[in-house]
């Protein structure tokens, strides 16, 4: 996978949109990664926790059909540390992704895209629901008493 001269935000925005479901503690190492796929002039960024899957799309031209996985948190932290107007070059060779921005160069470990778990549904199983935001919010309020509360212990 090669992406040349892309804006930092063109990669950071879709990454931020999906990285919320990436678990810090996981049973499978690949679940800490996001899947980066180039299709039809777009870059698809996918994350899953095996219960749900989220894909965000960014318009980035590159070689079609190329894909890899990379650590979501590490890539996100790296992109956030770069200046807002940074221009990136991404190059994947073997099990390593090299990110270049200006004089900076970072190497990140990758895992094969073929090993990334995907949730797929047949066309007959897809359903769409449309409702106003205020109605959706009211429905969530009715169920919030049953939602888990996260607590973090500091040591």
Radius of gyration, in Å, reads 18 Å
What structural class do you assign from the helix and strand content? alpha+beta
**Unreliable stretches, pLDDT < 50, 5 or more residues?**
none
Amount of helix: 10-25%
User: Average pLDDT across residues?
Assistant: 83
* Total beta strands: 8
Total domain units? 1
Principal-axis shape equals globular
Instruction: Tell me the name of the CATH class.
Output: Alpha Beta
**Separation, N- and C-terminal Cα atoms:** 41 Å
Largest sheet: 8 strands, antiparallel
What share of residues are in beta strands? 25-35%
Q: Give, in order, the helices and strands.
A: EHEEEEHEEEH
CATH architecture: Roll
* CATH fold name: DNA Polymerase III, Chain A, domain 2
Explain what you see.
With 155 residues, the chain is α+β, with helices and mostly antiparallel strands. It has a single domain (2-119), classed as DNA Polymerase III, Chain A, domain 2. Helix content is 21%, strand content 34%. The chain has 3 helices and 8 strands; from the N terminus they run E-H-E-E-E-E-H-E-E-E-H. It has helices spanning 8-18, 72-81, 133-143, and strands at residues 2-7, 33-39, 42-48, 53-58, 67-71, 87-93, 96-101, 104-111. The protein has an 8-stranded antiparallel sheet, with helices on one face. Strand 7 and strand 8 (104-111) form a beta hairpin. The longest helix is centred in the N-terminal third of the chain and has 11 residues, at 8-18. 21% of the residues are buried.
